[in-house]
Design brief:
- Its cofactor is Mn(2+).
- Belongs to the glycosyltransferase 2 family. GalNAc-T subfamily.
- Its main location: Golgi.
- The chain has helices at residues 2-59, 89-102, 106-111, 149-162, 185-191, 208-218, 239-247, 293-299, 320-325, 339-349, 380-392, 397-401, 415-423, 429-436, and strands spanning 138-144, 168-175, 197-201, 223-227, 231-233, 251-260, 267-268, 277-280, 286-289, 306-307, 316-319, 353-365, 448-454, 459-462, 475-478, 488-490, 496-498, 501-504, 512-515, 525-527, 533-535, 540-544, 551-555, 564-569.
- By secondary structure, it is α+β, with helices and mostly antiparallel strands.
- The strands form 6 sheets. The protein has a 6-stranded antiparallel sheet with strand order 19-18-17-16-13-24, with no helix packed on it. Strands 3-2-1-4-11 form a 5-stranded mixed sheet, sandwiched between helices.
- It starts with a helix and ends with a strand.
- Mean pLDDT is 92; it is low at 1-5 and 58-65.
- The structure holds ligand LR7 and manganese (II) ion.
């Protein structure tokens, strides 16, 4: 019986095993069917994709007919060098007028093909990157107020020539009430031949912020890409941007912005490994910075997207849906300025991510002055900046307001923007600084601030610490008690600074102003118990000359010309 029972168990077990086998087999079959179905689907999708691409290509305008001479002026992004003194008088006049109207060398630009070639500026690692097959498409919005024909149309053609047709749905050119004749009927007639390009016009001068809003309202693609009207897109610029947005629609992405020289239209570029990220100073001006160490570590690889606290403003792509959700732009901002920081703060504080994409490069003509008229009688940049400070910066706005003694003037109504911040449940500005921009110097954290007065003379350390004065020696000047060029702050890490300028000493006699780099080195100072200003790296002390007029660095002796008094010192 024992044996019989065993057999019975055996049979049961066997049946069980057979049942299990059956289940497994069926499952395997099912899986195989599913796999084939998916394969088939993928094949269909790729086929459809390919068909769409071909279709799009078929209908591209014959824009590439005008194939430029490979040795023509400016080809491969080369410089066009013109000796203006050798130009005939009428040509010379054109040359001068071009500069005057545009603040770049229009004469040189006019010599260059609208389809000029550019070098492949991408780092080699970029070529191995794969992007999604089914990327979202984009509308490119280009706003302009008076732009030279060749520069504007080269912007447009560089977009058409270097974007995969199926990803570029349309280009929306927004004319912000230009008065140059070529931007009227001639532009209309020209773009009508470029199937994807449309011109919309503002009814009065609105400024770039409301002009972009008009362009945005006309856009229909999944992603909106904004570009300035004097740009050139390089090969492969678009895919990496769209890919990041496909990854997550709250990624807001900027290309690396290369420099197109204003004099020669030379396309300048370097490795994206050395690219800069965006910041700001307490004057609410946009600033560039190196990639911080913590961000290098986080990314792990040199061509991965770089998180940036702010964007320059002109060149970026954003999901159309997300831009809408996020409250587009503040329509109360005029002409120019502020909107870039406003959007940057908003993206980060309200749950998005702002990135620079190293494998996407777009060139931009950087100008030394603004060629067009601004609103008279109003400081629009200040007004725009106050609007953003009021809404987004909490108590930190006071560091900005101190710059003009809290004289805010009329900045309009920001209640709707404040309501937007409420509605989106955004984080506060302290969170932003701590988590997104920890390298920002916060004046309230200064160990000492105000004038630095010599104890031996009635003289103070004096320098305009702005970028026009970088590399210039710092001098002594009679103390005036007005702050201004005598206002300094000693940071926790030992910098003596104002905004982005730091006292910097690298040997010799002079102390100079240099952009703060946060690496200590030549910028590390210590205000010691004995009231000397000690330079850590060289172990020298700041000393005022016998005549009181110059600041020099000397061996520390503790004589009274080496003793200093800061206006304010925080209790340590
Ligand atoms: O009233 C105006 N209406 C316009 O349509 C004034 C300007 N514009 C257009 C103009 O034709 C141009 O295409 O707006 C664009 C930007 O104006 P620019 O090129 O005269 O100024 P900019 O290059 O110094 O502008 C930078 O900062 C601006 C702040 O409001 C905007 O964010 C710009 O887009 C931004 N440009 C860039 O980010 C490119 C990189 C430069 C840097 C840093
Ligand atoms: Mn610009």
């Amino acid at each position: 019986a024992v044996g019989g029972k065993d057999r019975e168990v055996d049979v049961k077990e066997k049946r069980q095993i057979e049942d299990d086998d059956e289940v497994l087999r069926r499952k395997a079959e099912e899986e195989e069917r599913e796999r084939l179905r998916k394969q088939e689907e993928e094949k269909k999708r790729l086929e459809e994709e390919r068909r769409k691409k071909e279709e799009a290509l078929k209908f591209e305008p014959e824009q590439k007919k005008d194939v430029p001479d490979p040795n023509g002026p400016g080809e491969s992004g080369k410089a066009v060098v013109i000796d203006k003194d050798k130009l005939a008088p009428d040509e010379r006049k054109k040359f001068d007028d071009g500069w005057q109207k545009n603040a770049y060398n229009q004469y040189a630009s006019d010599m260059i093909s609208l389809h000029r070639s550019l070098p492949d500026v991408r780092d080699t690692e970029c070529r191995d990157l794969k992007y999604r097959e089914n990327l979202p498409d984009t509308s490119v919005v280009v706003c302009f107020h008076n732009e030279a024909w060749s520069v504007l149309l080269r912007t447009v053609h560089s977009i058409l020539d270097r974007s995969p047709p199926h990803l570029l749905k349309e280009i929306i050119m927004v004319d912000d009430f230009s008065d140059m004749d070529h931007l009227k009927a001639p532009l209309e007639e020209y773009v009508i031949k470029l199937k994807k390009v449309r011109v919309v016009r503002t009814k009065q001068r609105e400024g770039l912020i409301r002009a972009r809003l008009l362009g945005f309202s006309a856009a229909t693609a999944q992603v909106v890409t904004f570009l300035d009207s004097h740009c050139e897109c390089t090969e492969g610029w678009l895919e990496p941007l769209l890919d990041r947005i496909a990854e997550n629609k709250s990624n807001v992405v900027c290309p690396v912005i290369d420099v197109i020289e204003d004099e020669t239209l030379k396309y300048q570029y370097g490795s994206a490994k050395a690219t800069s990220i965006g910041g700001f100073d307490w004057n609410l001006q946009f600033t560039w910075h190196g990639i911080p160490e913590y961000e290098r570590k986080r990314r792990g690889n040199d061509v991965a997207p770089i998180r940036s606290p702010t964007m320059a403003g002109g060149l970026f792509a954003i999901s159309r849906e997300y831009f809408e959700e996020l409250g587009t732009y503040d329509p109360g901002m005029d002409i120019w300025g502020g909107e870039n920081l406003e959007l940057s703060f908003r993206v980060w504080m309200c749950g998005g991510v702002l990135e620079i994409i190293p494998c996407s490069h777009v060139g931009h003509i950087f100008r030394k002055r603004s060629p067009y008229k601004w609103r008279t009688g109003v400081n629009v940049v200040k007004k725009n900046s106050i609007r953003l400070a009021e809404v987004w910066m909490d108590e930190y706005r006071n560091y900005y307001y101190e710059r003009f003694n809290n004289d805010l003037g009329d900045y309009g109504d920001v209640s709707e923007r404040k309501a937007l911040r409420q509605r989106l449940h955004c984080k506060d500005f302290r969170w932003y600084i701590k988590n997104v921009y920890p390298d920002l110097f916060v004046p309230g954290e200064a160990i000492a601030s105000g004038e630095i007065r010599s104890k031996a003379k009635p003289m103070c350390i004096d320098s305009p610490a702005d970028h026009h004065n970088y590399h210039k020696p710092v001098n002594m000047w009679p103390c005036h008690g007005q702050g201004g060029n005598q206002y300094w702050m000693l940071s926790k890490s030992g910098e003596i600074r104002r905004d982005d300028g730091c006292l910097d000493y690298s040997g010799g006699n002079d102390v100079i102003i240099y952009p703060c780099h946060g690496q200590k080195g030549n910028q590390e100072w210590s205000y010691r118990e004995d009231n000397t200003l000690y330079h850590v790296n060289t172990q020298k002390c700041a000393e005022v000359s016998v005549d009181g007029k110059t600041l020099t660095m000397k061996q520390c002796t503790g004589i009274d010309r080496q003793l200093w008094q800061w206006k304010r010192k925080s209790p340590s």
